Each structure stands twice: as C-alpha cells, then as structure tokens.
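[job 4417] fold queue: 2 targets
>>> target A
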Amino acid sequence: MKHISKQLPTMINKKLVIPVVSVMLLFAFVAYVTYEATKVQVEVTLNGETQTVETHAKTVADLMQELDVTIGKHDAISHKKDETLTTDMNIEYKKANKIVLTTGDQSKTYYTTEDTVAAFMKQKGISVGEHDQLSVDPSESIEGGMEINLDKAIQVTINDGGEESKVWTTTDTVGDLLKEASITLNDLDRLKPEKTKAVTADSTVTITRVEKVTDVVEEKTDYATVKRNDNSLSKGKEQVVESGKEGLVEKKYEVTLENGKEVGRELLSEEVKKESENQVVAVGTKEIQNTKQNTVSRGDSNTTKTLYMHATAYNWDCKTCSGSGKTATGYNLKDNPNGVIAVDPSVIPLGTKVYVEGYGYAVARDTGGNIQGNRIDVHMPSQSAARNFGSKEVKVKILD
C-alpha cells in the first residue's frame, strides 16, 4: 500500500498537463485561423510589376510602408494614402523619374511618371517644332536622371549677292549658320554681321560678293590740227593740205564688281597702238587783187606766164572716173597721186610744169571732158581731200 500511495500524485499531474496543452494548442490554432482569416488580399503593381499581397495593413499607406515603399512628392499612386484596404483592391504605384531639360541656355528640372520622352513632352506642354532639334529620340524610354537638350529653331534671312532666302536654324553664330547652309566666302567678299555675332530671330545676314577683273579697252585719240601760212591762198581762206588720222590707245583697267555690278575702275596701264597724224591746214595770206588778168613778168633772162583760172579737184577713184588710175598721158595716179593737174591742152599744153596757188608744183598730165578754157582739175590723194579743196579761183604760173 505504501508503494501505491507514493506514485499517485505523479500520475494525477500527468493527467492534468495533457488537457492544458491541448487547450493551449486549440487557442493557438483558433488564433492562427482567426489571424489568417482577417487578412486582406490585394493586387499591387509597383513600377510595372504586379504581385498579390495578403496583409493585415489597414490603409494604403500602411501597405506601402509594409512593402518598404516610400511615396515621393512626384510619385503616382492609384489610391489615396489613407484609404482603407479592401479585398481584391488593385493598387498601382509608379516612382517619378527626374529629367533635366535644357532649352537654349536655360535648364529646368522635371519629374515625370511617363514612359517615353514624347509622352513627357506632351504632359508638360513642351512643343517641338518641325525645325527644332531634340537630343534624344521622342520614342526613347524615360530613365532617372535623364538630360535632354532642346534647340529651338529660328528663322533668319540670308542675302547672298543680292538674292534673298529665308532659312530655319538652331545655330548660335553667323559663322555656324554659313557652315550649316554650305555658304563659302571669298577673300574679297564682305559679311554683315561678322561671323562671331549671334544669330537672332528675324535677323538678316548680308553677303556682298566682291570681285576684281581686268578690262582691256581700245580708245581712239584725236589728231591735232596744224595751220601753216600759204601766200598762194587768198587771205582768210583755209585749205586742208593733209588729212588728220586718229590714233589708237589700249588701256587696261582693274574693275571692281559688287554683286555683279561695277562700282569702281582703276587705270593700270596704257599703250599707244597707233600714233595720231596731224591735220595740216593751209591759211591764205595773199591780198586779193581788184582786177584779174593774165600777166607776163619779164626778167633778165626768163619769162613767167601767169594765168587766172577756175580750179576744181578730183581723185582717180571717183565714181565717174575710169578706175584704172591712169591719166590721159598714161601716168599712174595710184602710185603718184601728187602734183598732177588736168588741163585744156589748147590753153596749157600737156607736160607743162606749173605752180598752182593753194596746190603747189604740178605737171599737166591729164585732160577732162569738163576741163575747157581757163579751167584746171587738180588731182588729190583721196576723195575726202578732193572734196575739201572745193571749187575756187586760183593763180597758175607757167614755169616752162
């Protein structure tokens, strides 16, 4: 009996422990089931990646904190932070990316949750013109810290040698504009404004095309007139003895052209190609006598007969002449045009040597249909000289 009484408390303790553990396990199970049953199941999309989350979080903010997500000022989230979570809720969150946009010399920082550059530009109301230049492709995906350069085009006028054209450009200086337009300046050309000047909207860039060329010109020079006294001509009368001839000078000029128009001319050199020949004019000094008569002057050993005759002039190449250049006596007037007169042989025999006032020494070597009586026709070396001689009264001295 003593042995039995000693083991009884131990057995009773063991029986009591088993129910207590069972109860505790039951409570734990019930608590677990209750805990699991009170969870909320939601879908969360973080920066494009979707996952299903079971949580005891009460609000959207609690859930984001549980997921270790800090909601920034510029981030996008589909629900309010203090909104209570409910089963099957779909929460979308997108972190904003930082973008630095530089336009001209001004930079501005933006934050955006858009996916592409084009969507970002549209979101911010930033227009990109047809002629503007963007440093990235509009379809490029947005990345954090992205730097974008936007060069806005301006319209300017280029006046190249008088021809105007309007162009769009994003360049900064006049020099860059010319390079972009493939315009080359020559050494003498003028540019306004200078290459280093800034290009501004609606400005005009003017290029004056300058070139220098050599111009060769032949110019005629006048002949001088020399007058000589002739006592065989009546006083106050003049007669061309030798016709003048114009000279020829070659002049070289350096000509400056601006946009194709001459603006300056400088003489470089001149060369005489042909000298002019003076015109010789005989000026009469003889006093006019009141009476005209044939006289005979007698000296100690010689007798000189003087006749007053009507004189005209001709040239062998005249329209009414034969054109052969030969006189009635066969004398060649082409080769010997001076000192020949046509006479009436019954008055002055052919071959007679004479001195004709206003003409000079001559020989009677020709005749003519109209040369009758006291008339003579003096031969001149050219038709113009014959015309200049005209028709006049002269004194003819018979020398033999």
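>>> target B
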Amino acid sequence: MSHSKPLSPPSQLLLRQASHIDGQALLAVNPPDAGCADELAIANSWHLHAGWAQHWPTRHHFGASAPQGEFDGAILWLPKEKKLTEYLLASLAALLPSGAPVWLVGEKRSGIKSIHKTIAAPWGAVQKVADGNHSSLLVMRLTAQQAAIDLTDFLVTKALPQPPLEPLQLASYPGVFAYPGIDAGSAMLLDHLPQFKAGTLLDFACGHGVLGAWLQRQQPDLKVSYLDVSAMALAACAKTLELNQLQGELIAADRLSAELPSYDIIVSHPPFHTGQATDYSIGQQFLRNARQHLKPNGELWLVANRFLPWPELIEESFGHCERIAQDNKFAVYLATHKVTANKITGRKAPRRSRR
C-alpha cells in the first residue's frame, strides 16, 4: 500500500527498528501515520485524532477509551501532554497481560528523554532501543496487570462564572486544549459574543465545549453542534453538556466537510498545532469553507493569536473582516455572509474598527 504523506520522524525511527518490535498482535496507540500499518504486526489501532483514524488502512478504533481485545503488547506514540500519557499508560496497564511490552516513540521535544522519571508502577524499567530523527524509541514491560479504569477517574471540573446564571460547569480530560480550565483567548471571545436568538450554531474546534455551552445556556432555543478532531475533547464536551443539562450534536472531524449543513452562527478558537508541530491546515481549511456553511446573514465569530494570518483568509472568503477587540496577544474577528442588517442577533450594528 502506498502512502503519499511522509512519515513523521518518530514513525521513521520506529520502522527502521522494526526488527526489535516483537509480538503477534500489537495495539498501536495514537499513531499519526497510516504507513506503519504495513510494516508492523498491528492487530488494532486506538486513535485519539479523527483525521488520523480516517486514513488508517486497517482495523481501528476512535474514542477516548481503549478498544476491547487481546494484545501481546502496544506501541505508544507519545502525545505532548504528560497527563494524557499517564492516562494512556493506565489504560494499557488495565488492558495488557502481565509482562507485555510497550514501546514508546516520540520526538525528543515531546518529553521522551525524561519519561523514565514520571513512569510509575506497574511499569518496569524504561530501556532505550534507539535514537534518530530527533526522536527516541524506548521499551518497558508491564509488571502486573491493573484493574480496569474509567475515563471519569481522570475528570477535572471547573465552575466558570456566568452571571446572572449559575456558574457553567466545565468538564475536562487530559489532552483537551486548555486543560483543565479555559484559555485567555476563549475567555476574551466570551466577553464579546452577543446573546444570539434561536437558530443553529456550530462550535468548531469545540474542545470541552465552553463556547457553545455558554451560548446555549444564554439561549436554550439555540441548536448547537460541537465539532472537534480529538476524542478526548468530544468526551469532555459530552460531559460538559451532561453537567449543565444541555443537548447537542457531537461531530468527530478535522474539517468542514461538504456533508455538513449551513448554520446561522459559527464560533471558534481555531487550532494551529497538531501534536508538537505547528499546523495551519485545519484553520486554513476552516476559514476557506466557513462562508459556504453559513446561511444568508449568518455570522462567523472567532478569536485567534494576533500573529496568525486568519484575517487575510477571512477577507478572501467573505470580502471583509471586522476586528471587534484585541489585546497584546489575541484578537476577536467577525465576518458576515452577505453583510446586511443583523437579523440573527436583533441588535444594532456596533461601531467597529475595520481592517
């Protein structure tokens, strides 16, 4: 099978050391590269990234919890978040038999050089297998199988003040953006979002669902869809909705696909990283396609780091981009599909600085 996308440096190192990877039925955990399926004895793969799962050529599982099955060992592509690594290892300790090997592979900047300091029982000593491509490959073995774990064992909740309502109960899991709370950019966007009337709203790159849930609590007649590429984020978003007695559609995707409908409102704090790497592709695709997923007079509201080239892309797509607010790090932008009177929010157009 051919794969046009180049392998990541950790995967290149892993395949060069394939002779050291023993076992007949391995679980690949968080694998970014479909090409690895051809060379290793992978019985199943556990994906936390919907885009990576989509392109995996063999059996795969997308979700926040580990797949069921019997495995001889596992290969874990280290995420950048230490808490997420702890959760994944705890899940493997409950899934694999005693003595099973787990190979850890990751870029050196991912923290793999110091992981031996954070690995706790029931894992044996961490042994280095190889270095290369600015990455390392390590192996360790499970000393004793652990009792099953539950995702909620790793749940963190925060109460976010939302006067005059009761505080919003915000749920988060390891690996979710801004874990375990809310980032400054999203907080800035919340300060400037209007109170929308009834309609359909998409929270793109929703994370734990703070933007959509906040707006939905203000206006219960809003029908909100929550889209994110991360299984951990979607699990956290579902828990946020549950804690606040809200309903919403959850969508696992890394883009605005043609199958998605048009919305009255889209809100977002678009990402510009995939794992360790700077990655503008999700934000670029989103902004180039947002207009066609807005109904006439529909509004796009987003916040972004000021250095990002999002305003230029918004202008290319919408013909205009309004800067609603800014500080020394973030800016809030607004664009409207066919700029007319504000029929959705029912408010007078405020004075705004235009680009």
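[job 4417] complete. Note on B: Residues 82-95 form the longest helix (14 residues).
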